[in-house]
Design brief:
Distance between the termini: 32 Å
Structural class: alpha+beta
Radius of gyration: 16 Å
Strand order of the largest sheet: 1-2-3
Number of helices: 4
Number of domains: 1
Shape: globular
Helix content: 25-40%
Strand content: 15-25%
Largest sheet: 3 strands, antiparallel
């Protein structure tokens, strides 16, 4: 796999006992435990109400006060926001 000009990544670490998701941005990486996830088959079902829904994440005041939560917020913004969206938030 070539990662030319790639500054962010999402990595799924799946084992027999645990599932993790890594959010990587620059020199920071955050590892989260996956409690549940949806398969492609489940997303393709006719009655899936979330299939065409958009998603939003809201960060409260705590994310600006605690250093770990601030880092988490920055990594998630780097991974999920486009360059155009990032320029609008500045």
């Amino acid at each position: 796999m070539y990662l030319n000009d790639c500054n962010t990544a999402i990595f799924f670490e799946i084992t027999k006992k645990t599932n993790y998701i890594w959010f990587i941005s620059g020199k920071k990486a955050i590892k989260c435990n996956l409690e549940s996830f949806t398969t492609i088959f489940e997303l393709a079902t006719l009655f899936n109400g979330h299939k065409e829904a958009g998603y939003e994440i809201y960060f409260g005041k705590d994310f600006d006060e605690c250093s770990f939560l601030k880092d988490l917020k920055n990594v998630l913004e780097d991974v999920f926001l486009s360059k155009k969206e990032l320029s609008l938030t500045d």
